[in-house]
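Convert to structure. Protein one:
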Amino acid sequence: MLASDTPAVRLLEHLAGVVRLARVLASAHRPLDLAGLDDLAGRLCAAALDLPPEQGRALCPDLVALLGELDALAAACGGPERAGA
C-alpha cells in the first residue's frame, strides 16, 4: 500500500486539484495560465520514479485517473483545433 504522505502522492493530489480547478474555469470560459502544469507534472514523474516498484505500481490507477482529468481539461479548453495545432 502507498503511504499518503509520500512526495509522489502529495504531488499527484495537488496536480489533480489544479487540473480539476482549471477544467472548471475553462468550462466557464475564464482565462487560464497553465504554465506551471509542466513543472508540476515533471516533479510528479520524478517523485514517482523514486518510489520502490511496488509503490509505483500502486500509484498507476491514480496516474491513469489524472490522465483522464488532463484529457477533460484539454477538451474544456477546446482541444488542439482551438489552439491551432
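Protein two, convert as well:
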Amino acid sequence: MLDVKIYKALLNTEKKTRNRFSKYLNSPYFNANQEISKLNEILEDSIPNKLDITKEAIWSELKATVPYNDKVLRSLFNKLLTHFEDFLAQEKFQSKRLTKSFYKLQQVQDDKYEILRNQILKEVRTTEARYQELSAEFHLDMYLIENLYFFISFDFQRKQRKSAKKTFSLSKTLHHLDVYYIAEKLRFIYIQLFWNEYFEGDTSDLFNDEILRAVNKGRFRNEKLLVAFYYAIRTLTNPEKDNYFKSLKSLLQENFDAFTKIDQRFFYDVLLTYSNRRVNKGDRDYLMESYKLYRDIVERGVVLNDNEISPVTFRNIIAVALRAKAYKWVDYFANEYVKFLPKAERENAFNFNIARIHFYKNEYGEALLSMNQVNLDDLFYDLNGRTLLVAVYYELEETEALLSSVQAFKNVLKRKKLSPAAKSRYNNYLKLTQKLAIANPDNKRKLRMLQKQIDELSSVNKPWLKEKMLELLPAVLESD
C-alpha cells in the first residue's frame, strides 16, 4: 500500500465525505492548483478498485513528459494533505450553527456593514431559540454571542448619542460563562476520579465541594448538563448506592437527543462502568441492567462512532448478552453489526464471537469449527481463544484433546509477556479444568478439595468452572 499520510487518511474516510472533498478542491476559492485536484482524482480512483498504486504511476499520470522527481511529488502530497485538513475544519465549522452566528456577528461590527447588522442579529436570535443543546460548547457559544451583542449595542448607542437602553442581559451572559466553566470543571473531576483507579493521577485538588453543592442545591440545579455530570461523579464515588446511577440513567434517557453524541457516549460509559462493577461483585440483578444498557446504546446508535464499532465493544456486548441468555437478540446483533467492525479485524472478531455464541448455546461442535477459523496472532484472541477451546474440549468429553490443549496453552503462557498475576489466573484455569476433567466422582475428599480451590483461587472463566463443579457435586452430596 502507498505509504503516504494523505492516502491513508482518504482510505479511512467515507465515500460521501471524499466526494465533498473533491468538490471542495474544485472550488477556485479554496484551491487554484489543478495539479492538486488531479492528484486527488488519481488517489480517489485507486480506492474503490483497491489498486496497489505506486508513486511512479502517480507521477506518470500527473506529469507524463517530465522525469520522476520524488521531492516535487512529496510536496504535492503535503499540499493535498493540508487541503484535506482545512476541509475537515471547514466541515466542522459548517456544522456549528451558533459558532457561525458568532463569526457573522463579529464581522458586522464594522460600520460599513451596518446595513447587514439588524438582519444578522435577528438570525442569531432565531438560531439561539431553535438550537438548544445540553453541552458545554453551547454555553460557550452563547456567552461569546451575548458578550459581542452587548458591545455592538453599546457602541451603536454611543455613536447615536442616545441614552443607554437595556437591550441585553448581563446576568444571562455571565450565566452561560458559569455553566461552561462548571461543566468543564466537572468533566475533569470525573476523569481524574476514573483514571486515578488505574494510574497515578494529578494530585491537585480538582474535587471542589463548593461546585458540587452549587449544582445539587444552588442556582445551577436546573441545568441538566451540570446535574448529569454531578450524578456521574456521585455514581463513581458512591459505588454502594444506586440512587445516583438511577437518576443519571433517567436524566440521560429522558433528554437523550439534547445531549451531544460525545456526552451521550460519556454518560452511557458511566452507567455501564457502574453496572458492570456491580456484576463483577456478584450482583446478579445488574447483569440484566448491563444487558439492557447495551441494548439501549445499540438501538440509539451510541455504539457506533463514525459508523464503526470497536472490536472490544462488540465482544463486550456479546459477552453480557450471552450471560443474560438473550440468545435470539445476540444472534441478531452479531450478524447485523459485524459490518461495522474495522475491516482489518472483522473476520477474526466475528469468528471468535460466533464460537462463543455456539458455546453458550451448547453447540460445541459448531463452536469448535468457528474457533478453527480464528487467527491466534493477536494476543487477545490467542489467550481467550485457547481458553474457550479448553472449555469446548471439556464439554465434548474429549479428554485427550483437552490435555493436549492445556499443555500447549501452558507453553504459550511461558513465552508471553504477561504480568505474574495474569499468568497465574490463566495457569489456575488450566490446572482446575484439568482436575475437573479427570476427577473421580466417587472420591468425595478430592472433590471437596477441588471445590475449595475453585472458590479460593483467582482464575479466568471462573463462573464456568463453578458451574462445572456444581455438576459434579450432587454425586458427593447423595453419598453423604
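The chain has a mean pLDDT of 87. Residues 231 and 244 are 5 Å apart (CA to CA).
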